[in-house]
Design brief:
Chain lengths: 195, 180
């Protein structure tokens, strides 16, 4: 939750694609905004969806697209790191919340326990920033926004999720339309965004 | 490439559907389609500014399927056995969020198929896609190349009008095969 609060503070004017389960509902509990695209399932797809949006926004004034991904979800689709390194979407920033467990399924270990996913991203051609504390995350995320993508902000977290967070019981069509409408206003009449 | 070929017609149909970006996962049957798409968009060696490879079909569903969220429209060129990789993405993302997407896939597992294993998935692909609520249009050698072009274009229109993925299954067998 501390990491999500930091990210919410820095992304009020940026499109933000959030991975499924705990990350989406915890971010919604911190701040539920129309610039958030919550993926309610679509396992491992947050980075791919953000890649597509970043490519689509290439010729627009929207400066960055942010993906929030977990280590377990990224490991279901590590292709996103290779694809990002190949296509090099300039506006893509992915924040990897890495607690080395599948938080939504009993904290069973992920490969991230033994594999450094930041180094995997570097091997794929990403610029990697690293943060272990909320203060470091604020600094490194701000730095990432100023870099050409793809950029991965690798955040090491303690295992465990917040208790009693409400489920996101909303129609995906409504969530998608809300995000699309918000993004359209930024494409047509973008606001100044301090990077 | 012969402008009357099936591959050139499919490529023209994709562009006529007002597609902004095309991602592909290669297959020998759609390789001529991909080459035509690359050539007609100013690229070389399998890539242009608007046509590019992706490593797996579910990622293609995510990358190209996300374009409508930003006001653009995407297409995927692949082969039908790749739907096995992509079904969760296509249903829980593209279909669930009502995002239009044009998919053109060559079929495997029919007459002339040399790979005895691929039947096990591909013969069920059309019914499987329909059971999951994905709209499927099929084109085969009974139609001429110009009809293939029209069907691909109309499938793109259909995807936009229904706010869903639309799949064109192209039976390339006996349409000059690898050099379609």
């Amino acid at each position: 939750m501390d990491a999500l609060r930091v990210l919410a503070d820095h992304t009020a004017e940026l499109p933000l694609v959030v991975t499924c389960a705990a990350s989406s509902r915890e971010l919604a509990a911190v701040a539920d905004r129309p610039n958030h695209l919550y993926l309610l399932d679509a396992m491992g797809l947050a980075g791919s969806v953000a890649t597509g949006i970043a490519l689509a926004l290439d010729d627009t004034p929207v400066p960055k697209v942010i993906a929030i991904e977990g280590d377990g979800s990224l490991l279901m689709n590590p292709n996103v790191l290779i694809t990002g390194g190949f296509l090099r979407p300039d506006k893509l920033v992915m924040v990897l919340l890495d607690n080395a467990v599948y938080g939504a399924t009993g904290n069973l270990p992920t490969y991230a326990e033994a594999i450094d996913l930041g180094r995997l991203a570097e091997a794929g051609g990403w610029t990697v920033c690293r943060a272990d504390t909320p203060a470091e995350l604020a600094t490194e995320f701000t730095r990432a926004l100023a870099l050409s993508g793809p950029v991965l902000v690798h955040v090491r977290l303690e295992a465990g999720n917040a208790a009693d967070i409400p489920k996101l019981l909303e129609d995906p069509v409504v969530l998608g339309r809300r995000f699309q409408d918000w993004l359209r206003t930024r494409i047509d009449a973008p606001l100044e965004v301090a990077l | 490439m012969d402008p009357t070929s099936y591959a050139a017609s499919v490529a023209r149909g994709i562009w006529a559907a007002q597609v902004d970006l095309v991602g592909y996962v290669p297959s020998v049957s759609v390789a001529p389609v991909i080459s035509a798409l690359v050539n007609t968009s100013g690229g070389t060696a399998g890539r242009s500014r608007t046509v590019f490879p992706l490593s797996r079909e579910e990622e293609a569903a995510g990358v190209l399927g996300a374009l409508p969220l930003a006001g653009k429209f995407g297409a995927i060129v692949m082969q039908d056995n790749g739907f096995g990789n992509a079904l969760t993405a296509l249903t829980t993302f593209n279909a669930a969020y009502h995002l239009p997407l044009l998919i053109v896939a060559n079929t495997r597992g029919g007459l002339g198929e040399y790979n005895s294993m691929i039947h096990a998935f591909s013969q069920y692909a059309p019914a499987l896609l329909r059971d999951l609520g994905l709209q499927v249009f099929e084109i085969d050698r009974r139609s001429g190349a110009s009809d293939w072009e029209a069907v691909v274009t109309e499938a793109g229109v259909h995807a936009r009008m229904t706010f869903r993925p639309a799949v064109v299954l192209a039976h390339f067998w006996n349409t000059d095969g690898k050099a379609a």
